From TrEMBL:
InterPro entries in the record: Endo/exonu/phosph_ase_sf (IPR036691), IP5 (IPR046985), IPPc (IPR000300), SKICH (IPR041611)
Natural source organism: Takifugu bimaculatus
Stretches for region Disordered: 415-504, 516-540
Name of the molecule in the record: Inositol polyphosphate-related phosphatase domain-containing protein
Biased composition (Low complexity): 493-504
Compositional bias segments (type: Basic residues): 426-438
Amino acid sequence: MFVIGFQEVNSMINKRLKDVLFSDQWSELCMDTLSPSGYVLVASQRMQGVLLLVFSKYRHLPFLRGVQTQSTRTGLGGCWGNKGGVSARMTVFGHPVCFLNCHLPAHMRNLEQRMEDFESILQQQQFDGGAASGVLDHDVVFWFGDLNFRIEDYDIHVVKCAIDSNKLPLLWERDQLNMAKVTEPILEGFNEGQLSFPPTYKFDVGTHTYDTSAKKRKPAWTDRILWRLRRTGSPVPTHNAALQRGLTSWLGGATKVTQHLYRSHMGYTISDHKPVSASFSLHFPFRVDTPLVELQVNKEWYKVSDATVRFTVASTYQRSSWDWVAIYKVGFRHHKDYQAYTWAKGEPAAQVTFSEEDLPRDDCEYILGYYSNSLNSIVGLSAPVLIRVPLHSPTACRSDSSDDSSEDDSTLVLLAPNSRSPSPKTGKHHHHRHRRSRSPAVPALPSNPLPALQGLSLSPRSKENEARSRSPCSAAKKERLISPDAVQSPTLSPRSPVSPGSGVTAPEALIAALVGEHRPAQVSPPGVKQMGKTGEINNI
């Protein structure tokens, strides 16, 4: 897995409006970089400039369940989201894990405020269902971000001299976070690897030189990655209480975390901070690795009658009327990046069939996924499927006058706010062709979004676009919501975060460095997971 935390992402008004309508630039770049390697966005949460992204190999998706996210504002007394924390939690192969990305108050004098804000974040972030309702209730917690802890007592000259002479242990002793871990009860149990890299703040932007401005900020390790283990791990899932206690004790009790790498990336100069990454292995005492839904499909679809998906639901899984089955291209980006979907109806042993017009025409491999609305995750995946259904004549399509049509004469190509995508329609059809969303989770629009959309204009859909409609025979007039900026350039933002002189986007280069250069030499036993890049986890 890759778990990536950002702080101080551009959150100006015009930028935030674009991020409401589309996914933000950093999410797009990370998905573009990781999806070709088989990683799928599992969860994302943004609060103004604080952003958290969680990616996993797609084959692990059925075992990452109960995905939930939270955010807590602490800026301006809890009214502003420039400071605070965003989190994502899920059960990973049966073990609750939480990722918490924070941006805490700055300046040397605000140590007490940092501790108060962190405690407030932990108290306010509560999750629904299960035993792990609070952040610290999880078997494993990863806490990271711009925590803003400083180096006390020593003046700037002593600190710089210690850095230049590589006497970093002298500075560890006066690091506020190291000292607070001894005195603050809220930090009990939190662990951190050795700070073997120089302080990551503050640099002149575009250089490797510590702050030379009039303020002359003292160098500090503001950017940190910590983890915490619960004393007793999750019990082995069984209905027999005595057997459960015995198995849990025999299997080792708790999850174990091993850190393989903790480093800074000093080559980046696009910020006054240097990025920090870590790589971990999670050793589980047991694994829940039976999918809640098993899908059975034909390996090759050459005709419409092959497009049937049979699924069997585990007795422990409570289905929802909002569950659905979707067709994904191998290498899809997130759970809404489907080619087509249909609602999952029927009894525990049931099947669904895709109509001819819903089937994708690209000659490539696809997989079928069962999405659980209650668990906010894909809980069942099929083996790869080759779809080569020929496109029949237009007479095979639905008539415009069909009573079954669920389309209005005027359709806006824009996701509804906070929709349970895919969203229900009023017609009889339960099959829907996907017009791909750029956003895996579109934030809620204001109750009256029209003033915020004055820069957008309505224009008739061109005949060329009409020919690409999901219903080739449809003669209904459609309109598309078009941004004048989008016509000029497909780029969401005129500026891409690029490391000077590299010609490579920052997320691509950083992730490539982690994947290609820093893998543990030893091979972990089966069932072991690795975690890094503000945590990265790879299954061995």
